[in-house]
Amino acid sequence: MSDAAALVAGAEKARTFFAEGLMYLSHPIHHKLLDLLRSGRFGQLRHVQGFYAADIWQVVNPAGGGTLYNLGCYPASLLHLVVQAMCGEDAFANRQLQANGNAGPDGNLRDSAVTVRFDNGVLATLHSTDGYGMAHEFTIATDLGTLRFDSNPWLPTPQGNSFTWTPYEGTPERFVADSGYDAFFHQLQMVEAAMAAGETQAKRPSPRLRDSAEIMQFPTDWQAAATT
């Protein structure tokens, strides 16, 4: 985290544009999600569950640190967005977590699960593996219903991006955001617009500098809990 802190401090001192490479958050599906979460129509947040699996351990760089940094950062960053949008700017940092995991031949975590309790009582469970499968899941539970991604929230495509809100009483509602472009295109658009406007940071749902630091701290804490 010292390297991350130095990077943030350097970007702020130079007043140059900086954005973390979480391209998926630039896609319109997450702009739609953020607007709806902020609106309050889904009620009070109670629990978040995320799972990301991809059998990539043989092709990734072992110096990258394992599954938490290859894949776990994606559900962690989306959890961060949800908690921040529904519970306030400071809610994500106030938490306790417990984790377990299994190491691969390179010594890095290959699969790991974490359970989180935020100080406001919200709970979360995340699971990440780069040792098997090709699957994704992300569900938000509130006091009024559940919101579940139908498509891969971390790899939005030009078409077919959606999530479904299912109230405990009532009819499910599906939300779709298809732009004809993938997440990489939308991230480029975001960067171009920010630089043209003289901004030094991205705007939500893309991570700001503060958000990037908080997101990076989470897998760091997760790894420490899973390996002790």
TrEMBL record:
Boundaries of every GFO/IDH/MocA-like oxidoreductase domain copy: 32-147
Keywords: Oxidoreductase
Organism domain of life: Bacteria
A Pfam family per the record: GFO_IDH_MocA_C3
A molecular function (GO) term: oxidoreductase activity
Presence of the UniProt keyword Oxidoreductase in the record: yes
InterPro entries in the record: Gfo/Idh/MocA_domain (IPR050984), GFO_IDH_MocA-like_dom (IPR055170)
PANTHER family membership: OXIDOREDUCTASES, TRANS-1,2-DIHYDROBENZENE-1,2-DIOL DEHYDROGENASE
Protein name per Swiss-Prot or TrEMBL: GFO/IDH/MocA-like oxidoreductase domain-containing protein
Lineage: Bacteria, Pseudomonadati, Pseudomonadota, Alphaproteobacteria, Rhodobacterales
